[in-house]
Amino acid sequence: MKPELPLERQAIRMINPPALLDLCAHETWTPPATRDVTGPEPPAVLFGLYAERVVATRVSRRGRPLARRTADSYNYLLREHINPTFEETPVTRITPEMVRDWYSDVARVRARGAKVRRRRRLCAYYTRTRL
Question: In this structure, is residue 38 part of a structural domain?
Answer without folding.
Answer: no
